[in-house]
């Protein structure tokens, strides 16, 4: 009996190539790997989160209840919200700006390489780099070195912040930080001696010369401020020795009735003169500004700024990624639309805001959601950059999960509960991204 041509049986019998089920043979290794690498850990984490720290007693949802009543979890969740809101937005905007600028730059390729280069560096290495960048000491931390340089350009630092008066020579430290003569003086008195200590020779300005005793004047008050120290201990306290240097640039003030009536700076040899003072008694003092501590910059890794500082490091790493994707989207925008807007009289800002950005919105959304997924799992930068004293303030869910499980807590039941919670937060963004890709395809 023959089978009529065109029937399903005939079609199956006449089909060339192996049967469809044979493809499973080639997919099996990948499926096994996927199951062992992803499915099993997820299922085991859900299972382990229902047991106690040692894994010997079933506790049900107790770990989840404790997780949501633990203050450290709320701090981590708050910081994760800050990360999700701020970091993807800042990185996406920076990538958009860089991508638009590179279209008009002469050295666009070189600029893109420089911006994208941090992507080749691991998060661990990036964290080490920015831990040094945010060092408090301006001699080591780049961020504070820049801030102190700019600050000192407009507001000069104190001349001798470590200086203090020589004891037993009639100088007293005032509550406001100034150093004053114990006794008041009048025009014609002097010359006044104001010996100081606490300054190393190499801290003196390059123009400092040997201290000299100034000539007294009948119409004014003169004196000298010098470093009252002689190497070898052969000098005399309160007396100008031949090898002792003046302290130039010290601000000296004449005070009368609690009001500064005159102010001068010392010369290279430490001398100063108040001329044209009216008759009366004055208190001569070294201004408090001479001894204020130099500006040391910002405490980047303190409790207040540690999270924004780490987000800055994240921006440095991921700005190149956003720039490349946005630049690819820019290259696909029809130039006719941009030129038509310009012909209609639109400014460059209007073209960017009403034409470029709307046409780029699908790409910007992909970049934003991708960054949001990565931000939810942020761990490396926080762990490396935040010092131990402020890690509680910079804590995020992934770091809290590691800390509870392996960083001293040794409670893998609670750590698994945190891992499941983090997975629940990440899954919606992943589903949204996958559906979007399917719609585009």
UniProtKB/TrEMBL annotation:
Residues 77-433 form the ABC transmembrane type-1 domain. It comes from the Bacteria. The keyword Membrane applies. Gene3D superfamilies: MetI-like (1.10.3720.10). SUPFAM superfamilies: Hypothetical protein PA1324, MetI-like. The chain crosses the membrane at residues 21-43, 81-101, 113-134, 313-334, 355-376, 413-432. InterPro entries: MetI-like, MetI-like_sf, Sdr_B, UgpAE/MalFG_permease. The keyword Transmembrane applies. PROSITE patterns: ABC_TM1. It is found in: Cell membrane; Secreted. It is a multi-pass membrane protein. Keywords: Cell membrane, Membrane, Secreted, Signal, Transmembrane, Transmembrane helix, Transport. Belongs to the binding-protein-dependent transport system permease family. PANTHER family: BLL4140 PROTEIN, DIACETYLCHITOBIOSE UPTAKE SYSTEM PERMEASE PROTEIN DASB. This is Sugar ABC transporter permease. The lineage of its organism: Bacteria, Bacillati, Actinomycetota, Actinomycetes, Streptosporangiales.
């Amino acid at each position: 009996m023959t089978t009529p041509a065109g029937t399903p049986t005939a079609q199956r019998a006449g089909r060339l190539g192996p049967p469809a089920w044979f493809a499973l043979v080639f997919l099996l290794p990948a499926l096994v790997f996927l199951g062992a690498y992803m499915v099993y850990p997820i299922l085991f984490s859900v299972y382990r989160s229902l047991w106690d720290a040692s894994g010997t007693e079933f506790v049900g949802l107790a770990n989840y209840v404790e997780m949501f009543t633990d203050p450290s979890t709320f701090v981590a969740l708050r910081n994760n919200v800050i990360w999700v809101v701020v970091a993807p937005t800042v990185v996406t905007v920076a990538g958009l700006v860089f991508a638009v600028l590179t279209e008009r730059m002469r050295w666009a390729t070189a600029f893109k390489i420089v911006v994208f280069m941090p992507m080749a560096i691991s998060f661990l290495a990036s964290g080490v780099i920015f831990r040094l960048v945010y060092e408090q000491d301006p001699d080591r931390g780049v961020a504070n070195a820049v801030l102190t340089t700019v600050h000192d350009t407009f507001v000069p630092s104190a001349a001798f912040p470590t200086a203090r008066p020589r004891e037993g020579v009639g100088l007293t430290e005032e509550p406001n930080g100034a150093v004053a003569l114990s006794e008041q003086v009048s025009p014609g008195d002097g010359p006044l001696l104001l010996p100081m200590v606490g300054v190393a020779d190499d801290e003196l300005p390059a123009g400092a010369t040997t201290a000299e005793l100034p000539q007294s004047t009948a119409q004014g008050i003169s004196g000298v401020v010098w470093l009252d120290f002689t190497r070898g201990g052969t000098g005399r306290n309160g007396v100008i020795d031949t090898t002792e240097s003046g302290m130039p640039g010290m601000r000296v003030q004449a005070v009368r009735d609690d009001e500064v009536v005159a102010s001068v700076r010392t010369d290279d040899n430490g001398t100063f003169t108040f001329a044209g003072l009216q008759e009366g008694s004055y208190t001569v003092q070294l201004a408090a500004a001479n001894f204020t501590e130099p500006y040391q910059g910002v405490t980047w890794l303190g409790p207040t700024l540690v999270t924004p500082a780490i987000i800055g490091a994240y921006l440095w790493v991921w700005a190149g990624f956003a720039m490349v994707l946005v630049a690819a989207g820019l290259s696909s925008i029809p130039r006719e639309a941009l030129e038509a807007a310009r012909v209609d009289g639109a400014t460059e800002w209007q073209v960017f805001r009403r034409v470029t950005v709307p046409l780029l919105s699908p790409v910007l959304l992909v970049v934003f959601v991708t960054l949001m997924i990565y931000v939810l799992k942020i761990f490396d930068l926080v762990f490396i950059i935040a010092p131990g004293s402020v890690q509680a303030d910079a804590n995020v869910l992934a770091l809290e999960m590691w800390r509870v499980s392996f960083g001293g807590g040794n409670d893998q039941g609670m750590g698994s509960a945190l891992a499941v919670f983090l997975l629940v937060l990440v899954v919606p963004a992943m589903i949204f991204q996958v559906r979007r890709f399917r719609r585009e395809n």
